Amino acid sequence: TSIFSAVELAPRDPILGLTEGFNADTNPNKVNLGVGVYYNDNGKLPLLEAVKAAEKTRLEAAPARGYQPIEGLGAFNTSVQNLIFGTDSPLIKEGRAVTIEALGGTGALKVGADFLKRLYPSSKVYISDPSWENHRALFESAGFTVENYPYYDAATHSVNFAAMKAYLAALEANAIIVLHACCHNPTGADLTAEQWKQVVAVIREKNLIAFIDMAYQGFADGITEDAVALNLFAASGLQFLVSSSFSKSFSLYGERVGALTLVTENKEESARVLSQVKRVIRTNYSNPPTHGGAIVAAVLSSSALRQQWEAELATMRERIRAMRISLVEKLKEKNVPQDFSFVVKQRGMFSYTGLTAQQVEQLKTEFAIYAVSTGRICLAALNTKNIDYVATATASVIG
Ligand code: PLP
């Protein structure tokens, strides 16, 4: 018999399964709102001009492809710290931030999870209810037990902060709390700066460990504005972890560019932490690939390219916002009974629309519009050509 005969077929990834169904659909009006990527107004995945320019320069320089250091490209790691904390951050000056280049935001979360498991083997991990669909499996695969903390309130389409705070305040010391820095996936509902202050206070008081996931910096209000949670944690003097993803903000999904930053007590502690994080990396994938990090570092460290990138990021952010506003207006024009104005308040690429699983199914079978059964839609999949069709279909299934 085969050495693999006991292997059972794993369940299909629900979102990838949706895309397979979409690809096979022959309806010319089909729309895939289930995706987790940014499409431009032509419904295409963009290659940013700033990225193109940095790639051209790199291609002409034709650098050799030696191994990178275990922690990745130094220039990339420095650029990431400057981006997330600001160039004047005392954290950086005092050597309290350790950054390693990771394989996307997912890779950063996994390196952080593996490191924390060695340090706090009996801690539990707490993720928001609901959260990005990979958070639970990722921390479980690092060996943790994962629980949900209260987060989204479907009735108000926003965060039930009182419940979240009360839950965190009752947790055991060294519990690991995964927080979305901005543009919460899947709900689009974020904490206010005032609420973040209270989260920092609870984390300090209860000796909890914050792991902040920042996959959409620049997609809500702007690069610095979206770092409000990070800045509050930075100012608190606490130690914490941050995973960054450049998949969306640089439209570099397949290049797998991300970073893990650990904020320590002092420079000497940073050296010890880095040495242990490097052991985690060495035994997983040894060192990260060269291309994506080099491109992001080149863009962030050239003032011209950085300016160009910021403008392109603003275009993505503003287009998503325009789609939110337009969708709400169109639904109103069609006299739907519900008030959808909350969609404009939600931030980032996603919205929990409140559509039921049955309505989502109807959108698919009657209109070839694909969405996740939870009612999550990706606003960045809407454009000026398909939004009327989507609004009409939505009004029809809820009417
Ligand atoms: N964290 C959140 C909240 C996300 O939404 C995503 C991607 O969808 C990730 C992490 C993973 O990012 P990456 O694709 O860079 O691994």
Give me the secondary-structure topology.
Elements: H1 14-24, E1 31-32, H2 49-61, H3 74-85, H4 90-93, E2 97-103, H5 104-119, E3 125-129, H6 135-141, E4 146-150, E5 152-153, E6 158-159, H7 161-169, E7 176-180, H8 193-205, E8 209-214, H9 228-236, E9 240-245, E10 257-263, H10 267-282, H11 291-301, H12 303-333, H13 342-345, E11 350-352, H14 357-367, E12 369-370, E13 376-378, H15 387-398
Parallel strand pairs: 1-12, 3-4, 3-7, 7-8, 8-9
Antiparallel strand pairs: 2-10, 5-6, 9-10, 11-13
Bound molecules: pyridoxal-5'-phosphate.
Pyridoxal-5'-phosphate (PLP) is lined by residues 36, 104-106, 132, 180, 185, 213, 215, 245, 247, 258.
Low-pLDDT sequence parts: none
> Widest sheet: strand order?
2-10-9-8-7-3-4
| Rg over C-alpha atoms, rounded to the nearest angstrom | 21 Å
**What is the end-to-end distance?**
57 Å
The structural class is alpha/beta
Observed structural traits:
399 residues; two-stranded parallel sheet; 15 helices; 14% strand; globular; binds pyridoxal-5'-phosphate; transferase
What does this protein structure show overall?
This protein has about 400 residues and is α/β, with parallel strands linked by helices. It has helices at about 15-25, 50-60, 75-85, 90-95, 105-120, 135-140, 160-170, 195-205, 230-235, 265-280, 290-300, 305-335, 340-345, 355-365, 385-399, and strands at about 30, 95-105, 125-130, 145-150, 150-155, 160, 175-180, 210-215, 240-245, 255-265, 350, 370, 375-380. β5 (about 150-155) and β6 (about 160) form a beta hairpin. It is globular and about 60 Å long. The model has no long low-confidence stretch (mean pLDDT about 95). Pyridoxal-5'-phosphate binds near residues 36, 106, 132, 180 and 245.
